[in-house]
């Protein structure tokens, strides 16, 4: 558009210049006293100049830009590790056929001796005791006084040995003849000692009453 305006302005300026020159020429002719015929002739020769403005061609619109493609961001680049530039190490002198060092001797200390076990506590003093007769003279006299009547009629005498078992209450729970004199006297001895004899019961180590045994001889004699 600016170029077309410039062309139209130039054409107008040319037209104005031509018209101005015509007026100058007409004035000059008038001043110089030319005849009117000459003026008319010149005026007739003057033609109107129509300047057609050139219509500029429409400019082609530029094609739209291509769509932007998504570009993946570049992968992060880790900075290179710092480089320590150290001076060259001194040369290493090597010696051929160096024997390997001997392995250290493995010494295993002997195990510590086990501590001796603590001695057991001493046992408490034993309170055990055997059974003992209780009032032996009294019940022995009663056994002798209960002389078997059949033995008296036959005048049978003798000594009977007995072994009795005593319970925790001090009474005879069993009788056994260890020395026989006569069947009548043997039977009378076990029967009477079981009936009349009394004992202090035996005790165990803790001092508690327990069963025991006792032995004696019963003398049967006719006075």
SS elements, strand count: 7
Tell me the overall shape: rod-shaped
What's the CATH superfamily of the domain at 132-220, by name?
TonB
Which strand order does the major sheet show?
3-2-7
Low-confidence stretches: 1-7, 46-52
Q: SSE order in H/E notation? A: HHEHHEEHEEEE
Q: In CATH, what is the class of the domain at 132-220?
A: Alpha Beta
Alpha carbon gyration radius? 83 Å
What structural category arises from helix and sheet content? alpha+beta
CATH architectural group of the domain at 132-220: 2-Layer Sandwich
- Fill in the CATH topology of the domain at 132-220: TolA/TonB C-terminal domain
Mean pLDDT: 77
Sheet bearing the most strands, described? 3 strands, antiparallel
Question: Would you mind describing this structure in some detail?
Answer:
It contains five helices and seven strands, in the order H-H-E-H-H-E-E-H-E-E-E-E. Strands 3-2-7 form a three-stranded antiparallel sheet, with helices on one face. It has 223 residues and is an alpha+beta fold. It is 32% helix and 15% strand. The termini are far apart. Among the domains are: 44 residues; 89 residues, 2-Layer Sandwich (TolA/TonB C-terminal domain), CATH 3.30.2420.10. Helix 3 packs antiparallel against helix 5.
Which short descriptors sum up this protein?
223 residues, alpha+beta, TolA/TonB C-terminal domain, three-stranded antiparallel sheet, two-stranded antiparallel ribbon, rod-shaped
